[in-house]
UniProtKB/TrEMBL annotation:
Species in which this protein is naturally found: Ruminococcus gauvreauii
Protein name, entry field: 4-hydroxyphenylacetate 3-hydroxylase family protein
Gene3D superfamilies: 4-hydroxybutyryl-coa dehydratase, domain 1, Butyryl-CoA Dehydrogenase, subunit A, domain 2, Butyryl-CoA Dehydrogenase, subunit A, domain 3
HpaB/PvcC/4-BUDH N-terminal domain segment(s): 3-273
Keywords recorded for this protein, A-Z: FAD, Flavoprotein, Oxidoreductase
Domain HpaB/PvcC/4-BUDH C-terminal: 281-478
Top-level taxonomic group: Bacteria
Length: 482
């Protein structure tokens, strides 16, 4: 397993092509806007080497028998699924940000079981290809970007019906030694901090859409791959000299980007699906369920920090014992633990797949994510309520440090006389960071649209809710005979 510093150095060795604000970045690992998100990923390496967190952060590989980072693990039991959620909550508590390795872990487990079943039915060699690739992931302790979401163009049209066929990533050439692909993947969390890209189709494909039913892996610096960094609220604060208080969370962050695949060659040994449309829906559904489970951990950990920050704000405002403040903190805790309960439940109710790895209870995973699309918004609303309006009208840190006007900020923005004004400013900026600033991308908007937007979960809940069986239960008790 890599250490934190070895991980950072491994990124510096990559020849990634990354654009931000209209210019190519020389070193993503050293860019002030990107560095906090890199720190979040680095924490997954650092904590894996800490004996206190060894049980959660590491596992024994079923492929090599060696000790590995849990983010590269193929789940071997429901206990593994539960530990995954507990690990994610802990990391959310440590970073209050997106730590960006969950998508690759979830993609790996979904591709593992799907390729096994493709091979069993069709006699292909995708499972062998994937196992060999994933052994390399484990041996090198790579961070993998799971790339599923296509730009999609006109949402009312299928991939093959789009005016521009590249709006869903597709195979444009098949050769004896591999394939050439073109297209893009959007909203890619942590891609600039990753080593490898694991591509999957984004929807179930029709028989005539074989070119779009493709799964493969390429290095992030493969020829023809480049990235355009996503813009976030308050992101340029990180570029201000000496910025600290105004960042809210100066050490950790997250990011998303658009990945362009401009005629990228993929060798045969790194192809895991190539036209098998009947299995595209299986892969999409399995990845989505794993990732919907993940949100019952990571968002809860960030929620723990937000609840703590709101409680501190109440202390600093001088109202920790006011009944409605206490009631709001209780409600925030209730909502957060409800999300965690869903994450644990879908893990504990998981089952073994044909390939031997373990899959979550898909119905409960979708219920988990459906709650995630709602409850973090209410937790954030209550935090903003407790924090007060000063959170969004607070002067800048430069003003606070100014020799002439700083003393006025110190005087007039003090809450409880025993608490330094700077402490009050810091906790308000942390709440702003999570609810409105750079971390809001991961805590609020990603809660809504990540791992599929709300209607996607409702469709899955409808499919898996088994209403007919529930009707029979009611008929039996009511003594109704058909």
């Amino acid at each position: 397993m890599m250490t934190k510093q070895e991980y950072v150095e491994s990124l510096r060795k990559l020849n990634m092509v990354v654009y931000m604000f209209g210019e190519r970045i020389e070193s993503a690992a050293d860019h002030p806007v990107i560095r906090p998100s890199m720190n979040s990923v680095a924490a997954t390496y650092e904590l894996a080497g800490d004996p206190e967190y060894e049980d959660l952060m590491t596992a024994t590989s079923n492929l090599t028998g060696r000790k590995i980072n849990r983010f590269t693990h193929i789940h071997q039991s429901t206990e593994d699924l539960v530990k995954k959620v507990k690990m994610q909550r802990m990391l959310g508590q440590k970073t209050a940000a997106c730590f960006q390795r969950c998508v690759g872990m979830d993609a790996g487990n979904a591709v593992y079981s799907t390729t096994y079943e493709i091979d069993r039915k069709l006699g292909t060699h995708y499972f062998e290809n994937f196992v060999n690739f994933w052994k390399a992931v484990q041996d090198n302790d790579w961070t993998v970007d799971g790339a599923m979401t296509d730009p999609k163009g006109n949402r009312g049209l299928s991939p093959s019906a789009q005016e521009d066929p590249d709006l869903y990533l597709r195979v444009v050439e098949r050769r004896a030694d591999g394939i050439v692909v073109r297209g893009a993947k959007a909203h890619q969390t942590g891609i600039v901090n990753s080593h490898e890209i694991l591509v999957m189709p984004t929807v179930a494909m029709k028989p005539e859409e074989k070119d779009y039913a493709v799964s493969f892996a390429v290095p992030v610096d493969a020829e023809g791959v480049f990235m355009i960094y996503g813009r976030q609220s308050c992101d340029t604060r990180k570029m201000e000299e000496g910025a600290d208080i105004d960042l809210g969370n100066s050490q950790y962050g997250g990011h998303e980007a658009l990945i362009i695949f401009d005629n990228v060659f993929v060798p045969n040994e790194r192809i895991f699906m190539n036209g098998e449309t009947e299995f595209s829906g299986m892969l999409v559904e399995r990845f989505a369920s794993y990732h919907r489970q993940s949100y019952g951990g990571c968002k809860v950990g960030v929620g723990d920090v937000l609840i703590g920050a709101a409680a501190l704000a109440a202390d600093y405002n001088g109202v920790p014992k006011v009944s409605h403040i206490k009631d709001k903190l209780i409600e925030m805790t209730h909502l957060n633990e409800t999300l965690y309960a869903c994450g644990i439940a879908c893990s504990a109710e998981g089952a073994r797949t044909q390939s031997g790895n373990y899959y979550v209870n898909a119905l409960l995973a979708n219920v988990c994510k459906q709650n995630i699309t709602r409850l973090p918004y209410e937790i954030a609303r209550l935090a903003e309520d407790i924090a007060g309006g000063l959170m969004v009208t607070l002067p800048s840190e430069q003003d606070f440090r100014n020799e002439k006007i700083g003393p006025y900020i110190e005087k007039y923005f003090k809450g409880d006389a025993k608490i330094p004004t700077e402490n009050r400013m810091r906790v308000l900026r942390l709440i702003e960071n999570i609810t409105l600033g750079t971390a809001a991308v991961g805590y609020r908007t990603e809660s809504m649209h990540g791992a599929g937007s709300p209607q996607a979960q409702r469709i899955m809940i409808s499919r898996q809710g088994n209403i007919e069986r529930k009707k029979e239960l009611a008929k039996k008790l009511a003594k109704i005979e058909d």
